Amino acid sequence: MDPKSEVLLRQYDYLSGRVLLVNTPTDELLAECGESIRPFVWTWNYNDFQYFQSQQAQVHFGVEFPDQEFDQAVIFVPKSKELLNYLIHNIAARLKQGSSVFLVGEKKGGVERAAKQLQAYGKLIKLDSARHCQLWQLTLDCTVEAKALADWAQTYTVATPKGDLQICALPGVFSQDHLDVGTAVFLPYLSQVTSGKIADFGCGAGVISAYLAKLNPENRIFALDVDAFALASTQMTFEKNQLSPQQLEIKAVSGIEDAPLFLHAIVSNPPFHQGIQTNYAASETLCKTSRRHLKSGGELWIVANRFLNYPILIEQSFGQCTVKTDQQGFKVLFASTQKNAKES
């Protein structure tokens, strides 16, 4: 069991009624809950959502607060400070004054820093410290007005040969307030991507998806991500730039295995973080298996840190891998499937 869940269970008697569990670890926590509480999970990670569904748990996947009433809430500390601000504000706006909100997290994950973000909402006490984790209890004593989702988005401008793009990024989304170096290196090469049915794997705030849509109005973009905040950000970015909604299909995925088939191209600045941990599994699987989602003559375009072994993995799958550029610590990688003589 996750140590954060173990610490929460040590103080189980503090929990009662309808309890909202936010950003919950995928472990046996819910199975350990007795009849004194009725747990409900809120997650924005599609993998976690599928796990809790398999456990027959009550679970909500999305960026908005669940359309339910709760007596208490437990927040498992997210990596992003801005995301925690979003969560506590929404919880404080929905729970009654006097309700308890619990915060649990690892010391190395910044739980003490996170606890300070709750101080403005009421009385805060530390309940426990064990397993390299801490558990805090907040008693709400303020009135908070809910804010529209769009008010939480940060906006920044990306200059492109096709004109400026306005990027909208919600809390917790990768590179929320600026264009990351990898995507900046990648952008000049997107004009070489074949047109048609294109998947942007790990779409983030929608920089790549929006630029591909702007490059060619005939492109059909499938924006794929495990994170509901990323998917909502991409939707906002398209709307902000008045791009045709018919060009975009948003889809929550566990990995590249959930991508459509017969794609003309897959483009990606692959994700490699899972919470505070580094995890290359999804992007390595992308390199190994993406060709089965491409039509004959289809293309794979990836930008990645130069120290990663992606060129080898791509070459093993496609038979070749071209390095289009190597700059600022990033490589742009290209591969294509063999084109059938019968297929135009």
UniProtKB/TrEMBL annotation:
Its EC number is 2.1.1.172. It catalyses: guanosine(1207) in 16S rRNA + S-adenosyl-L-methionine = N(2)-methylguanosine(1207) in 16S rRNA + S-adenosyl-L-homocysteine + H(+). Pfam families: MTS (PF05175), MTS_N (PF08468). Keywords: Cytoplasm, Methyltransferase, rRNA processing, S-adenosyl-L-methionine, Transferase. One of its GO terms (molecular function) is 16S rRNA (guanine(1207)-N(2))-methyltransferase activity. InterPro entries: DNA_methylase_N6_adenine_CS, Mtase_sm_N, rRNA_ssu_MeTfrase_C, RsmC/RlmG, SAM-dependent_MTases_sf, Small_mtfrase_dom. It comes from the Bacteria. GO terms for cellular component: cytoplasm. It is found in: Cytoplasm. SUPFAM superfamilies: S-adenosyl-L-methionine-dependent methyltransferases (SSF53335). The keyword S-adenosyl-L-methionine applies. Residues 165-333 form the Methyltransferase small domain. Transmembrane segments: none annotated. Residues 5-156 form the Methyltransferase small N-terminal domain. It is an enzyme of class 2 (transferase). Specifically methylates the guanine in position 1207 of 16S rRNA in the 30S particle. Monomer. Belongs to the methyltransferase superfamily. RsmC family. This is Ribosomal RNA small subunit methyltransferase C. It comes from Acinetobacter variabilis. The gene is rsmC.
